[in-house]
Amino acid sequence: MSRNEHRDPVKGPFEWLFTLCLLLLGSAIALNLAIALLAQIWPWLVLFGLLAGTVAAALWVRSERRRRW
Questions:
Q1: Do 41 and 34 touch, CB atoms closer than 8 A?
Q2: Residue 2: helix, strand or coil by DSSP?
């Protein structure tokens, strides 16, 4: 039998705490990276959103004006 078969499936508290800390650290780094990237592109996102809203409003006004009574 190998060593892995005799291992307890329930992890010890230190291993559990270490894993939790690594997950929290990775999450913090990923969140920081996402915010930094979003800070660089948010003006473009706002611009494209305004452009899409303007086109949608123009198409709606055009369809309302062409509709007959």
A1: no
A2: coil
Residue-wise pLDDT for 19-39, tens only, equals: 999 999 999 999 999 999 999
Q: What is the pLDDT of residues 40-57, one digit of tens each?
A: 999 999 999 999 999 999
Give the residue numbers spanning the domain of 11: 3-66
Scanning the structure block, which residue is given the tokens 């329930």?
10
Token pair listed for 55:
């086109």
pTM score of the predicted model: 0.56
Q: How many domains does the chain have?
A: 1
Neighbour-count burial for 23-59, b at 16+ CB within 10 Å, e otherwise: eeeeeeeeeeeeeeeeeeeeeeeeeeeeeeeeeeeee
